[in-house]
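Chapter review: from sequence to fold.
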Amino acid sequence: MAKKENREGIALQCTVCKEINYLTSKNKKNTEGKMEIKKFCPRCNKTTVHKERKAS
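The token string follows.
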């Protein structure tokens, strides 16, 4: 099985309502900056930009 030492747990937060909707991980070597992804926000009930935040 592959090692997971390069992966970091992150949370994706909606930029409109500031709610944390998704938990995921990213590779620290390949993705150096903060992630920004368009995802569906159930609170806003539409697709919005979600920015990376440290998972707690």
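Two observations follow directly from the output. Residues 7-54 form a domain with the Rubrerythrin, domain 2 fold (CATH 2.20.28.120). The CA atoms of residues 29 and 37 lie 18 Å apart.
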